[in-house]
Design brief:
This protein is of the alpha+beta class and 560 residues long. It folds into 3 domains: 23-120 and 171-250, no CATH class; 262-368, no CATH class; 374-531, no CATH class. It contains 21 helices and 25 strands. The strands form 7 sheets. Strands 16-15-17-18-24-23-21-22 form an 8-stranded antiparallel sheet. Strands 2-10-9-13-14 form a 5-stranded antiparallel sheet. Strands 1-3-4 form a 3-stranded antiparallel sheet, with no helix packed on it. β3 and β4 form a beta hairpin. It starts with a helix and ends in a 16-residue tail after the last strand. 42% of the residues are buried.
Length: 560
Amino acid sequence: MDATDEIGERFKSMALGGTGRDDQPVQINERHMKVFISIPSVDGEDYIGRRPKDFGPVSKNQARNLQIELQDKHGNLIPAPLLDQHIWNDAGTAKLSGKDASNEARKILREQNVPVDLWPKRVAQGKFSDSDGKEKNRYQLRGEEQFQLMPDGTKRLQSHAYENQIATGAFKGDAQAIYDDGVVYLWRKKGDGVTIESLKRVYAVSDDDGNIVGVPRIAVTASTNVSHSSEFIDLHKEEWGVADKRLKGRTSESVSDRIPEVLVTFKNGRQFDADLVLQHMPGSLEAEKLRTGPGPDETYRNIPINVRNVHGNNWDPIETVHAQYPTYLQDIARNHGMYTGSWASLEAGEKDRLQLTKAENTARFDRYRHEPPARAWFAGAMVPLDDPALIDATKDLTPQERMKAYPLSSITLTVIGKQGGIGGSQRVMSSYGGKEAMPESGFDAVRAFYTGDHTRATPARTETFHALAMPGHIRNAGRGIESFKAALENNRQATPSPRDRRGSTAGSIDMGDAADVSPEQAGMMNSFPLQQNTPAPTPNPPRVYDSRDTGSRNSGHDIS
């Protein structure tokens, strides 16, 4: 090798050797937002997120295999690559968007030395043609695609799939207990009964004498991989529902602990658990349909079957569930000894999304057009609220006793379409947000059932007939659960209690009777079983850990 070649080799060595400057480990700071760094567990166990000062420097390559999250002023945990999509205003009521959001997110990441890039690569799920006929990639997960596999083999609902799953929070836990100096990422198991309040109790900080001195903030992971504090969820509950409902939704559990997973409707309008139908009435037409599917016989096809949806708040027609979540339905059918094949004919709809054929859709509306406005769990079945057996069994109960025996989580309302049609879906009443409008007919039926005044119940589904059937102060209050409470309170003296026939002076509803009715239920906002309505006694008000080490509780809120 001559001198020129030797110089050339040295030059190459100097130019190409060493470590890239952009991959030097850097110490992340917290100039704008708190940061928590973690490595998700692979076995479904809880894991810890630590502050940068405790974790140490991080390089760009290392960051690809780390879960780096920033906590905003509302207590929300946001995966760093998704920061620009989840920057909220100070009030927590609106997100920044477009260039404003991107510029703000880049500024925060740059000034805090967080070595990640925005706009992580999403995984295309297929193609679709837009209105101009141009073919485009589809990224939004839909149907079965939403069930993304976790490292421990379980599945969680997510809105998008990313190439870098760890960094984008795809493997983060279902809930988080957030402290000043760290985060505990928690995984739920179906049926574990975990609630927001139970997490606060379990993860509270105690002193040497056992006194609670601090309570962590609890957040729940959304399908976007962002975690929202329970306080922020409460701010947006009209849109998203309460925090406990969202926590149950992580494992696709029911918001009701009473209603079976699969319901079969008999001619009297009563719905029974599919397992009981197969066990006790194996020779019935209903059992035959469960075992063999819809079949060519119209007698079988016209038997309504409802299945709990993946979010746990609706019982949808089995045909609809087959169109939207076929594998989910197959798993349920297999568990209950039901037919695992096709329950309806499907066709490609908008963006190639599978949907019921026009003939199937028409048949569905015909099959469910006689659905009652509302049902309640009674004597081992979901029965219409105007069922004679239910009315007779409750005729001597006060409204307080009715509300205690039949909480909102045991009542379903028939969903009414914008054009007044009934497509067969039923929604648990407790899953409605505070101001979210309920179907008029269901609203009216439940009010009549709770007050015992069935003369006011009406199946009318139009605004005109509904207005004629209801007292003005109830009609004008709106159909949200919060307004329902106010309407009942205003009406309590006007509607006699059934016990008045026996000389009782009890009003139709006494919101102050705390011994019989919980505050949540009296407010028509109860979402879960009654045993959770009585909180355990606590010492002096504990400190709630703040996201800024100030010792005061943040008042803001956030989601999605």
